[in-house]
Amino acid sequence: MDLDDRMVIRTPEGVSIDVVLAGPGSRVLAVILDTVFQLVAFAALTALTLLILDALSAPTLLRAGCALVMGLFCSVGYFILWDVAAQGRSLGKRMCGLRVTRSDGAPVSFVPSVIRNVLRCIDYFFFGLVGVISISVSRKNQRLGDLAAGTVVVRDRLAVDRMRAKARKREGAADWGEVAPGIGRVAYFGDMSLWDVTGVDTEHVRVAEKFLLNRANYTARAREQLAQQIADALRVKVAGMPHNLDPEEFIEAVVVAKSR
């Protein structure tokens, strides 16, 4: 039974992507880690600025103003910078395997990031209790800033894949070291020496790898349809490969053969 909160995002291309929403616990931990990084950044930037102002014999009022600007930058600008420049992954979120994204799956742009992070001060009322309550009761685990900005915080797909791989290894499964992009298991497709994949160009490989890397996020129906379409396009360009492979196995085999 899967106890994770999930949300299905439907892209403009008509593909449904299943994502795992971040809960209050992981988000609070990410905020704690980010707060540590913010304090370190504030201390370093303020110390450097005061050293420069001391050398210039700047007045006390200017020093206080610079310290205030540094505080605002490190408290709000820190998150805006990471949201926009790092695809929604601040240092704390990265360490916790989380990312912030738009509700439609698009990356967070500047204006939504400003809205969600300016309202962060309200979510922090009563030691963050307002934010925790909002995350717990909202349908998409959103705090007030997320509701206003139209954003959600989800578990990063790569982080989820790593956790699943560790779980399989603990259960005694085979080694899940990657063979090729998107193939997280030891794949065996028989003798590959007679396969001719020279007709598969770079663009076909890119499409195949993109599917393999993202297939865990698709709904079952979308995954099956995409796999069949890609496999059909590849079969006419490959010679000597077994015909008893299902579409996903065939795509994996092509990517492995090209990588070798």
Q: What keywords describe this structure?
A:
single chain, 260 residues, mainly alpha, two-stranded antiparallel sheet, 11 helices, 4 strands, 58% helix
Q: Could you characterize what this model shows?
A:
The protein is mostly helical and 260 residues long. The chain folds into two domains: 6-158, no CATH class; 174-259, no CATH class. It is 58% helix and 8% strand. The chain contains eleven helices and four strands. The strands form two sheets. Strands 1-2 form a two-stranded antiparallel ribbon. Strands 3-4 form a two-stranded antiparallel sheet. Strand 1 (6-10) and strand 2 (16-20) form a beta hairpin. Helix 1 runs antiparallel to helix 2, helix 2 crosses helix 4 and helix 9 (202-214) packs across helix 11. The chain is elongated. The protein starts with 5 loop residues before the first strand and ends with a helix.
- Largest sheet, strands/sense/barrel: 2 strands, antiparallel
For the biggest β-sheet, the strand order reads 1-2
Count of discrete structural domains: 2
Percent helix, as a range, is: 55-70%
Content-based structural category: mainly alpha
Runs in which pLDDT lies below 50 for 5 or more consecutive residues are 171-177
Strand content: 5-15%
- Strand tally, please? 4
**How much is the radius of gyration in Å?**
24 Å
How far apart the termini lie comes to: 38 Å
Helices and strands, in order, run as EEHHHEHHHHEHHHH
| Total DSSP helices | 11
Mean pLDDT: 80
User: Quick one: overall form?
Assistant: elongated
